[in-house]
Amino acid sequence: MKHLSDINKLQRCDRLLWLFKKQPLPYQRYVMFNENIYELTLRLFGMKDYFKGAPHDPNERFFSSLDAYDVFVSVRLEYQGLRIKMPIMRKVHDGFVLYYSYANCYPKENEAQTYADQEWVLDHLGIKVVDRFVVHLNPAYVRDGDLDLEQLLIVEKKLYNDKNKAKHTIGKLVNDRKRDLIPFLEAIDQVMEEEPPRKIRTNICTRKGKCDYFDVCFPNQKDTSILNLVSSSKKFELHDLKGIETISQVDFDDIEGTRHQYAQYMAAKTGTLFFDAVAVDYFFRDVTYPISYLDFEWETFAFPPFDGMKPYDVLTFQYSLHIENANHNVRHKEFLGKGDCREAFVQQLIHDIPKEGSVMCFNVEGAEKLRLKQLAVQFPQYHDALEQIWERMVDLAIPFSSGLIYDNKMAGMYSLKKLVKIFTNKSYDDLEIGDGITAMQSYAKLDEADEETIKNLLKYCAMDTYAMILVYHWVLRQLAKRKKNK
Ligand code: SF4
Q: Which of 63, 44, 45 is closest to 53 using CA atoms?
């Protein structure tokens, strides 16, 4: 049995298709889909009586129900071994109107290829499409009471380009993309009959994001591999065409020459830690005690679950706060909330965090500062107190992300987890909840979480702030050592 997603994979790489079919990877969820977009669409249109398709349905189930229903949901159809699942279909006198529902804000023009391929199946089964719409989330919608479907959902006849502009109608985009799928179906059969296709390292492996099977195809790369060179569009060409394996073999004139790349180059050349002591010292010059090491955990909701929230807003449900005073004594505070815990979170944070001193976070702009700013919009009565916190933030990630400090073992990455492992003798590995994604999944089940899960969540978040202390003190020791050796 074949699906349209198989064709997409085949077009990217035949080996990817083979691996996906034979060695599927577990699904990773990054967003909480707390409502069903199909059900909301049906409610929006007042469609109550409808045919509901199911996996493995034969075509006959749909055709034999045509007289009994006007609306069809999740219809499964098959032609030449290619199975498709249709969006909402509404019967009209001369064919069907299709409603593609999206739990996102800007369904893109490239979706039209899937629609065109689905219509290839419909055409061959004698099913005529007379119109098409997308139904998607309104990014400007702010929840106030029950979900207002008229405001939350936008019904549109166009898809969106890369700049989120709706330019072309779906009909035009679909007509431009119609194609014969028989050659693709034959190619899929051929790929699946053979041993895994040969792995060939090209920019296809990393274009628009690293391929899910990259580490399966190319395990155990050297830390100093040229492929770990950061922000480089030239590394693939250097690797694939010029045969350059490691960063130390690169002619510096052949790459972009950013500060971060320079740090990687120097570390690879010398085999030692690159540490720009003057710049690091300057970066941390304004850090003052008490230092509040602060870390949040949050969940992103596709549909705003509570008042004042928009689609894809986050709910910050946990923090860990280690406070280090000038004598290096450390105390710990924490918060873990359930349900709509936003205001309780804000109140306790304002209460717990010292009113002076630096607030150290990891990835300030994309994480803690952003979250506090969102909370300040949702709860303007706390704006000034929250601003007082984010104004004091220092980003511990920057010296590592901008190439002031680089160790070959970082292999082009700088997550806190990685830094702790490299620069201290601690590790996240022995924690039950060892990463942010797992932490999010545990929050989703917090209502039924046992004591052990809650303990692990607290431990994970606390590990992040503890890790910041360890890494920051490692930096201070490096600075002290260099000053002494002057
Ligand atoms: S890593 Fe590259 S070769 Fe391997 S499956 Fe992905 S695209 Fe294909």
A: 63
Mutate to test the pocket of ligand 1, among 9, 204, 206 (most ligand atoms within 8 A of CB): 204
> Which residue's alpha carbon is nearest to atom 2 within ligand 1?
205
- Rounded Cα–Cα distance for residues 236 and 222 (Å): 15
Nearest CA to ligand 1 atom 4: 217
- With tokens 């219509």, the residue in question is 119
Six-digit token string for 430: 């022995």
Torsion over CA: 26, 29, 34, 39 (sign): negative
**Interface ipTM:** 0.98
Instruction: State the CB neighbour count (10 A cutoff) for residue 458.
Output: 17
Residue 160: enclosing H or E segment and its boundaries?
Answer: strand 158-160
Helix or strand holding residue 174 (H, E) = helix 170-177
H helical segments located in 180-234: 182-193, 214-217
What would the pLDDT profile of 217-229 be if each residue is shown by its tens digit?
988 678 888 888 8
Give which of 444, 462, 317 is closest to 375, Cα–Cα: 317
Residue found under tokens 């450390």: 330
pLDDT per position as a tens digit, 128-156: 999 999 999 999 999 999 999 999 999 99
CATH topology of domain 273-486: Nucleotidyltransferase; domain 5 (3.30.420)
The ranges of the chain annotated as CATH 3.30.420 are 273-486
411 Cβ inside 6 Å of ligand 1: no
Reduced to 3 states (helix: H, G, I; strand: E, B; else coil), residue 273 is: coil
